[in-house]
Write a structure and sequence with these properties.
The chain has 22 helices and five strands. α11 runs antiparallel to α14 (273-293). The protein starts with a helix and ends with a strand. A hairpin with a 2-residue loop joins β4 and β5 (424-429). The protein has 430 residues and is mainly alpha-helical. The protein has a five-stranded mixed sheet with strand order 2-1-3-5-4, sandwiched between helices.
């Protein structure tokens, strides 16, 4: 699903002669505008429309969607959050026991189905929305509403399409993910003490504090919070602790806090301090969110050194870290010499052996994957010898590994070490 979305952006870029990065951003802004428009159309006949028309809530929502992602802008989780919003709007109507028209049913089904097609984990968010709506409405029939069947049918159609048109997913990719990629995981206790969990708890506390004196629970706040809780479960279940995995849960929790503020009587409170406290909390949480999601790796020194070696270089990077070669190769208008973005199979097996996740016997069973990755490196190297080779010795022992392999050592013989920057060797073909 994610690949299809980005391929669409590349096709769009070629059609209008733009760089794919710019075309992707244009499409994401268009998707955001479309999603928010659909939310408005779904809720336009509901009493909620008065709250949605509040410029402050609209600005808060826009900032959460287009500013808060920062460095994680355009990641799958960012796209999934944008696509799920119309479904959340319909589940809010369900929770309020309001009528839902045929068009809204279709919009919600497609919205939820598209979101779950990105990753199976996202079913937690959609499922929690449905459960929260049924509980708020005290109507079990919400569990079997038509939009849920439409979403399930779309997910099934996506799975069948993959089987028919991309069977290698089941024969090549899935076994690799199951046997190797899932070894890359952090301990759950370590994930539970990360800043995104703290931001989520703080935003949830704001919702609960503002709702504690309300005569009736605000459906918009609690259904949105339920969606956020589902993404929190997804964040923990993936066991990576990466920033972009946490984005939807934090953004939706902050959106729920915005709904709670709009539903409260702060505007009629004669005291000034509650409004100041809420505004201060909102600013602090938003700034902290932006700082967390703005985390990136600076490879500027490496990029500048490579740029001095010639224009439009062809580049091979021996590393498991995807951030070294990308977006450097795009910035330099170079050519990427590899079928992979980074060589993570060998590195995951090595680290798993090192930390005791794997024993020697289990690692031996995974050698076929390691060897397949190695064979791909050598085949791509021979097919188009790169102008520049970067060898990452900062995060792993790629230099020792490459020079201990007879075939790779022979391929590297025409190359001369230019400089080592931050543990990364820069080699130029002589």
């Amino acid at each position: 699903m994610a690949g299809s979305v980005y391929f669409l952006a590349v096709a769009f870029a070629r059609a209008i002669h733009l760089r794919p990065e710019l075309a992707t951003n244009i499409l994401i802004f268009a998707l955001t505008a479309t999603s928010l428009t659909l939310v408005w159309l779904v809720l336009r006949t509901s009493p909620l429309r008065e709250r949605l028309a509040d410029g402050r809530l609209a600005a808060w929502t826009t900032a959460l969607l287009l500013i808060a992602p920062m460095y994680d802008f355009g990641q799958r989780e960012h796209l999934a959050l944008i696509t799920v919003l119309p479904a959340i709007a319909v589940y809010i109507l369900r929770a309020r026991r309001e009528s839902v028209g045929p068009a809204a049913l279709l919009i919600a089904g497609l919205s939820a189905g598209l979101t779950m097609s990105f990753k199976p984990y996202f079913a937690f968010s959609v499922g929690f929305c449905i459960l929260a709506s049924a509980a708020q409405a005290r109507d079990w029939r919400v569990l079997f509403a038509l939009e849920n069947w439409i979403a399930a049918a779309l997910v099934l159609l996506n799975a069948v399409s993959i089987y028919l048109f991309f069977p290698e997913y089941f024969t090549v990719i899935y076994p690799l993910v199951r046997d190797v990629y899932l070894l890359l995981k952090a301990p759950v206790p370590a994930i539970l003490v990360t800043l995104p969990i703290g931001l989520w708890l703080a935003a949830t506390a704001v919702v609960l504090l503002l709702q504690r004196k309300q005569p009736r629970r605000d459906a918009a706040s609690f259904v949105t919070l339920a969606a956020s809780l589902g993404f929190l479960v997804s964040f923990v279940a993936q066991r990576k602790g990466w920033g972009y995995h946490a984005y939807p849960m934090v953004a939706l929790a902050l959106l729920a806090a915005g709904f709670a503020v709009s539903a409260s009587d702060l505007g009629h409170d004669p005291r000034r301090w509650p409004r100041v406290a809420v505004a201060t909390a909102a600013v602090v949480l938003f700034v902290q969110t932006c700082l967390w999601f703005n985390g990136s790796v600076d490879v500027g020194q490496i990029e500048r050194q490579v740029a001095r070696l010639g224009p439009r270089p062809s580049l091979l990077v021996l590393s498991a870290a995807a951030v070294i070669g990308h977006p450097m190769v795009r910035t330099l208008q170079g050519t990427w010499i590899s079928r992979q973005e980074a060589f993570w199979v060998r590195e995951i097996v090595r680290r798993s052996l090192q930390d005791g996740t794997l024993d020697a016997q289990a690692a031996q069973r995974l050698q076929s994957y390691v060897e397949r990755e190695r064979a791909g490196i050598i085949a791509d190297f021979r097919k188009q010898p790169p102008d520049i080779v970067l060898i990452d010795n900062q995060n792993s022992n790629w230099g020792d590994w490459a020079r201990s392999d007879p075939e790779l050592k022979a391929l590297l013989e025409p190359y001369t070490l230019v400089k080592t920057v931050e543990g990364v060797e820069i080699l130029k073909r002589g």
